[in-house]
Every structure is written in structure tokens, then in C-alpha cells.
Here is the input.
Amino acid sequence: MTITEEVSGLTRRQVPDDWSDLDIRAVDTVRVLAADAVQKVGNGHPGTAMSLAPLAYTLFQRVLRQDPSEAHWPGRDRFVLSAGHSSLTLYIQLYLAGFGLELEDLQALRTWGSLTPGHPEYHHTKGVEMTTGPLGQGLASAVGMAMAARRERGLFDRESAQGTSPFDHFIYVIASDGDIEEGVTSEASSIAGRQQLGNLIVFYDDNEISIEDDTNIALAEDVAARYEAYGWHVQQVEGGENVTGILAAIDNAKAVTDKPSFIALRTIIGYPAPKLMNTGKAHGSALGAEEVAAVKEILGFDPAESFQVDADTIAHTRKAVERGTEMRAAWQVEFDAWADANPDRKALSDRLAARELPQGWEQELPSWPVDPKGVATRKASGDTLSALSEVLPELWGGSADLAESNNTTMAGADSFGPTDAATAHWDAHPYGRTLHFGIREHAMGSILTGIAMHGPTRPYGGTFLVFSDYMR
Here is the structure.
């Protein structure tokens, strides 16, 4: 097969029967907006946003349980763009779906004070679940989010059958070759496999291109096989235009509840830029006026117009707001029924949502008599954790294989993990409280970040001081 034949095969459109002409136009609009935004500012990453347009559009318009009018709705699915350099992959979907970004924000990409900085920033742009950019951190922290979702369910609704609780939701990730190459994702992905996180779905954008062009110069292993070895459910979808395959893979992933899912999506970066697609030049720089115009002609847009969005296209995609409101209303009925049946748990949920501590919690803090010999800080810390375990059920954490040294285990607490993770020394339960990171300090830091960002629990981790420098 020649390169041209391979590209042609990987860019053949395959869509479900209900995929309309407006859906096709919306996806192509994403490509044009990505090319225009980077061209206007003169720098950025257009290629991935162009080739991932069908995937990102499918997620935000057909898959994610989110409400653009209430971005922090606790029952929502989470989406993490681990490939944060391709921020337009997220920004354009937030614009189309009605999260608050407008066309002027896309035109202000990577400029001071804009809502569209070069990399997505949490607390800055509505709809961004976490700050990403340093490759690997998004995927690693998403593992923490998936763990937090399971612990949250364990606190509030552990008796419900899988998939029936108002606390059930999924964590979706888009990761790049660079994310996969980073060591922190290897650590975190190994933990995710051990934890059997069936609520985590990762899309790997397998485009075989980085800034230095063909990734073969630095990446040779079978990534899908590596994730199978980690204990993940692995699927491969050929072609970024294969929406039918993407949707089928997501359905398959959701059906596997005892493994995290890894979906390798073989794409052609920069498609359909005629000269620069499938090259490193499409990765991290503007395509150039001539190439941008050619993209528009190929897709049926006016080459002389910038940031073209048809009125019927944006009206079509903004229906996501109405769908999101309906999904949240349906969830609210389920949540209210749970609240009526579980008043004590509802009270705990309200307290955690408000980020409040219970009245009198400090009375449980231990104290030590004055002693010239002092008390080791690690012992004092361990005693404090155990003392607070009853009054602060939201508190949980552990260590990177140092629990016996730094006393990070609460007395009597089960380990967090599937029952087959249990050992002679540790009892394991899916909703347990003691975290075991193994000797994976980097993943520990990222996972704790993900747990904290997901909410509503409060995580802790412990290691030696010099290792904390290493983690940074």
C-alpha cells in the first residue's frame, strides 16, 4: 500500500445513518476554525484539532453527559484533553456546544487576557476540567478522577447496581503520542489497570507525528499491546473520519465494567491540508495562507472568508444546551429519589459539596505531652489521620510503598482496590480508603491532583521530603 492509499483509507468518511449534512458541515467548520485561529495569531497547533474534529464533535454532541448551562453539575461526565497543546480541540467544541465561548474568543487564541490561552486552564475557561499542557499529566490525573468517582459512589450509594446510581459517570480522555511517551502515564496507567477502573475511557490519537515529524525516530513499541499488558480493555479504530467505529468502540468500552478502556484511533494529522497533512509541519505551526485557503476550498468554504460559521450550523450544534438541560433534569429526579431515601448520606453530600468541615472536628485531634525526646512527625501524622478517620469520612489516601515508614494508613481502613488485589497483609475493597501507589511517586502526585479536582473527597499522600522534590 502506498502512502497515498493509506491516507485515503484512513480519511474515508464513515458515519451513522442519522449523521446529517449539518453534522458534516459542523465537523468541517471545526477544521476551518482551527486553521484560521492559528493562522491569525501566527502560532499554535492546528493539525491535531483538524484531524480530531470528528472525535471531539462526536463526544460533545453525542456522547458526553454534560450540561453547558451548568458546567459543574456533579453528575456530569468529565472530559480531559491530556493533549493540552491542541487546546483548539476543546475550545471549538465549547464554542459549538454553548458553554460560553464565542467566535471572538477563538479569534483571540493565545493572546493576553483571552479565554483561549495556548493551553486549557482550569478556573479560567468554563468547561475546562483541568489545566493541561505538560504532556502526560492529564491522563495521569484522569486516573485519579476515575478513582475519585468510585470512592464517591462508595460513600453515598454503594448498594446500587452498576450503572443505576446517580453517582455513576465516565471519565473521557484524549491523549497524544507525547502523552503516551511520558513516564507518568506509564505509572498511572499501570495503577488504573490494577484498579480495574471501568469508568475510564482513553482515546489515543495515534497519528505517528510529533514536532520532530515521524515518531518512529523515538517510539517503536506496540502501544496497544502495552495497554493490554497493563490490564486495559483495548480497541483499535482505523481512521479519524470513522465516526461509526468511534461510537461502536465507546459502546463496547462502557460494556466492560472491570477494566479501563484504551481506544487507539489512527488519524492523519492536519487532514485535509493538501501539502502539510501527515507531516510535522502540521503539528505546531500555522499552515500558511495558501494552505489554509486550500483547506477551505476542499471543504466547500469561502477561501476569502475567515472564521466562517453558517447560521444553521451553530444553531444545530447549540442544541447541545437543550439536550444537556434535559439530561440534568432526568438525573435530578434520580438524585432526589436517592436523597429522600438516604437523608444522612445527603447531609454528608451537602457538606462535602460546600467544602465544609463538620462542627467540632478539631476536638478529635490528638495531643502529646511535652517530652524532651519529642515525637516523630511521621508518628504524629499517622495518629492524627487515624483520629480523624471517623469524623472525616471524605479523607483518604496513602503512600508510594512507604506506608510502614511514613504512617499513612488509617487504623482499620480497607485498601482501595478490587477484591483480588488483597494480600495477606492488606484487605482490599472497591470502595476502600487506603491507597497503594506502589513505587510510583510521579503518578501519586498526578492521581491525587485528579482526585482533588474531581471532588468531593479530600485526598492525601505521603512520601519522604526529598522524593517530593523528585515528584515535581
Q: What stands out?
A: The chain is about 45% helix and 10% strand.
